[in-house]
Design a protein that fits this description.
With 155 residues, the chain is of the alpha+beta class.
Length: 155
């Protein structure tokens, strides 16, 4: 006779381990600096690129695979603190991607890179206007920051 999964696997309460993040969206909005590991390292997460966009469910696989490849490349770059990718799947798929850098100059190098151009290409699959935020010492900027850094003005 087959046993139920509940009898095979003891129930455990993971709620304390999930704090301070209640949901992936909370983690995205609060940022990784809220996590005790990052706080424990004494790192400032002030230099951050936060991207959010929606894609059709059939695009999730290719977009996730491409972003994972780009994240691996980012982690090898000087000044990279962390990269995060999360998705929320429903009738449409929300893609959230964050990169954190030690210094604004590290971020600028990345915004000028081919890797950033590939991320922008992935965002072109969005079903509605993407959210783009750059948290830099001068404040929070949008797409205008990327345009300036890539050669359209002074950042």
């Amino acid at each position: 006779m087959l046993q139920s999964i509940e009898s095979l696997v003891p129930k455990r309460d993971f709620s304390a381990q999930l704090l301070p993040y209640a949901t992936a969206r909370d983690r995205f909005e609060r940022g990784p600096e809220a996590h005790s590991f990052v706080r424990g390292l004494g790192l400032s997460a002030a230099i951050r690129m936060k991207l959010c966009w929606y894609v059709p469910p059939q695009d999730l696989g290719p977009v996730s695979a491409a972003l994972n490849t780009l994240m691996v490349a980012a982690r090898t770059q000087p000044g990279c603190i962390s990269c995060h990718l999360s998705t929320e799947v429903g009738a449409r798929v929300e893609v959230r991607y964050i990169e954190e850098w030690k210094a604004e100059e590290d971020l600028k190098v990345q915004v000028r890179s081919v890797r950033f151009a590939r991320i922008a290409e992935l965002m072109e699959r969005a079903t509605e206007l993407p959210s783009i935020e750059f948290n830099v010492p001068g404040g929070t900027r949008g797409l205008d920051y990327a345009v300036e850094v890539r050669g359209g003005g002074s950042a």
